[in-house]
Write a structure and sequence with these properties.
By secondary structure, the chain is an all-alpha fold. The protein is 58% helix and 0% strand. The protein has a single domain, classed as DNA Cyclobutane Dipyrimidine Photolyase, subunit A, domain 3, CATH 1.10.579. It has twelve helices and no strands. The chain binds flavin-adenine dinucleotide (FAD).
Length: 212
Amino acid sequence: MQRYEERRVANDDTYWLVFELAWRDFFQFQFLKHGADFFAPNGIRDVEKRWDRDRAAFCRWADGETGIPFVDANMRELNRTGYMSNRGRQNVASFLADALGIDWRWGAAYFEQRLVDYDVASNWGNWAYQAGVGNDSRDNHFDVLSQAEYYDDDAAYVRTWLPALDDLPPQYAHRPWRMDDDEQARYGVDLGVDYPEPMLDIEARYAELRNQ
Ligand SMILES: Cc1cc2nc3c(=O)[nH]c(=O)nc-3n(C[C@H](O)[C@H](O)[C@H](O)COP(=O)(O)OP(=O)(O)OC[C@H]3O[C@@H](n4cnc5c(N)ncnc54)[C@H](O)[C@@H]3O)c2cc1C
């Protein structure tokens, strides 16, 4: 019956929906199989990774005050609505675990408090996967800047959640630190006042991660 129903209504969207539901079931079975190891800092494969526990840096991430617009916009959407897209979740999780090197379990616990669709297996499974301690041993880090410029090329999403950046052209809306003092004055965005300075040199950090 299901196969027939699938064939009868099959299209691109149904293909992806079934694909996504397969991921959901995958994490349910993984949780069943691994139990408490799902919450271990080095994950189900006991991967040798040292995690940072910088509370102040973590709070900047949680509050959407990192100074990296695509991360901040997604975190502010989560804090205001309880929802964030899968693309957004992958990027902010990678930013916390890969770019900042902060304990991914803090991020998973924060999502647990905030998400309207929180599910223990999907949340902790996806977080561990993104942090490189889940099922996949490959380097999964996301370059949040190139992701932002590809998936939010006109910066409409970033400007929706970060009104301080509303008047900026896309290249500066995604990389406001590239503005010099004159440009900041021209666009009326004083970094460090109207919008945070970036909490790290993210372009240098991604160059580092690419060369690892
Ligand atoms: C760090 C991180 C944390 C996440 N935490 C949760 C969570 O707590 N609860 C949750 O349901 N999903 C979680 N996901 C998976 C996914 O992001 C959401 O299921 C999806 O964004 C929900 O939006 P939607 O219903 O519009 O999804 P659609 O894209 O329309 O997908 C339809 C359904 O498929 C399932 N699904 C889709 N993608 C995934 C996935 N990667 N893993 C597991 N199931 C998936 C969900 O049940 C979803 O409702 C997480 C993903 C990441 C990267």
